[in-house]
Amino acid sequence: MRERLEARRLLMEKMSMRSKVEKEDAKNQEERLSMEVRSLLVAGTALSVARKRLQESNRLLAGEKGYGHLQKLQKMLRMRQQFMISQVSFLYPVKILVGPKQEQELESFPSGNRSGNSAASKPVNPGSLTILGLHLTILPFTKMSLFTDKKEVQRSATALGYIAHVVSLIASYLEVPLRYPLRLGGSHTYINDYAPSIEPTSDLSSNIALSTNTKPAEFPLFLEGQDATRAAYAVFLLNKDIEQLLNYIGVKSLGPRHVLANLKELLRTIQSPEYIDT
Q1: What is the DSSP letter of 195?
Q2: Which PANTHER family match (predicted)?
């Protein structure tokens, strides 16, 4: 009986110890649950505040000074840009010479939709386009010789000065910083290229320092007293600026040799009703 009583006492002690451990575990779990409940209450309060702010923001966006007002301001800005650029187009008209031989070219001038699908139409012959009555002849820039017509060279330089002025005005109205800035000077206009013209070396840090301190290279948009290769490269950079503006309004370029055609497409697209509605 004593042995049984001792065994029963030991069993009761073990059960008491286990009960104490389980009681401690239950107390710890209760504390953790209470902390989680408090954090849930705080999160619920924050969520309620955020929901109220979201509702208030939605109400403001749907109001008179919300998203609709922003769309109206954007439309007014585009209308203002369109008006100012139409004045530029009036000052520097880019026209197609219409005649018996150019009539087909006039009809096949690309419509220039905003998706950039201009491959379906035949590009205009660059010789049929004029700006303020002047042709832009690229041939002297590639094949300059003693027999080249000096007046034709002067007319092309003047036309390039007009184009550069138009591009500069449009870029300022659209607030687009040109990749190749222009230094306007009429028929003696220059275009800048900030790309470093240094040979790569093994020292990367020196290359970075040189590229940051390199002054822009100026290229003439005229041939008088200039190297023909540098002048041809200047025309190429000018067309790149026009392509930049075309890409900005979502229109595909007609190619690197269509300076006036790209400019005409730029002016036509900006003056179209689709420009305001987008």
Answers
A1: S
A2: UV RADIATION RESISTANCE-ASSOCIATED GENE PROTEIN, VACUOLAR PROTEIN SORTING 38
